[in-house]
Specification:
It contains 1 helix and no strands. The chain is mostly helical.
Length: 71
Amino acid sequence: MQDWEVRKVNQLYTQLDVLQVENRMLKNSVEIAGFEERLDAVEKALERLIDVIDRSTDVKPTRSSKKTTGK
């Protein structure tokens, strides 16, 4: 193998190393993005649940109970 061939192979291995690092970073980004999307969905579901609970507690209080608001 000639010197220029050795240099070319070394360049290709170096490029491969860089691409492997980039690939791992991209996979990690995708996983994080998926987690963030799922977290957003959970937060929205919690907000809807809180709204339902708030509406259900807006019932007129009876004589034996007092309505308290935390707001």
